[in-house]
């Protein structure tokens, strides 16, 4: 099992680890990792690992089964040997944009309170798909409300509940396409705001900023029709 350092501190950018195994596909599995693995519409992290004066560029990270994460090299070069101690260096500029974007999409689901049918996160432009028969009439007002949530500088925190607690509260799940993965006995919730200022609470395994003010200015992009009742709404970082 890979220890998920990004789960306890998403702002950590450098850490040592031990190589546990190489995957058949040429990936490197560490005993603990800074690198978020592709999941939930969020791409895997990139960066590099270093050992004995050598550097291995990492293009992305993926799940490798049995609670392991594999780091995928960006080029076919020699891998650090099993048992080696390496230092992980995260591409922080990219990760931070993904954290800002992911948190911003949670806010988008607040100002458009409709079931979510899909989504994808990228560094400059992301999107959510909604069960939305008609396109929104006043995007300027929606964008204003979105940025007002950013300006409130609300805290973003997480907590854990049991699988049974989530099954008993299906309203926490905004996505129509799939339930959060169950079976481990617990599910992570991400909360935006606290007490009477809470605006969102939903299951999520991704990385997020600590406060909404860190997101920066947001711009709503185009709205595309993707089926009889499906609309795709794009969101851009403007700063």
UniProtKB/TrEMBL annotation:
It is found in: Cytoplasm. Its cofactor is Zn(2+). Keywords: Hydrolase, Metal-binding, Zinc. PROSITE patterns: AA_TRNA_LIGASE_II_ALA. Its main location: cytoplasm. InterPro entries: Ala-tRNA-synth_IIc_core (IPR018165), Ala-tRNA-synth_IIc_N (IPR018164), Alanyl-tRNA_Editing_Enzymes (IPR051335), Thr/Ala-tRNA-synth_IIc_edit (IPR018163), Transl_B-barrel_sf (IPR009000), tRNA_SAD (IPR012947). GO terms for biological process: alanyl-tRNA aminoacylation. GO terms for cellular component: cytoplasm. Residues 1-233 form the Alanyl-transfer RNA synthetases family profile domain. Pfam families: tRNA-synt_2c (PF01411), tRNA_SAD (PF07973). Gene3D superfamilies: 2.40.30.130, Threonyl-trna Synthetase, Chain A, domain 2 (3.30.980.10). GO terms for molecular function: alanine-tRNA ligase activity; aminoacyl-tRNA deacylase activity; ATP binding; metal ion binding; nucleic acid binding. PANTHER family: ALANYL-TRNA EDITING PROTEIN, ALANYL-TRNA EDITING PROTEIN AARSD1. This is Alanine--tRNA ligase.
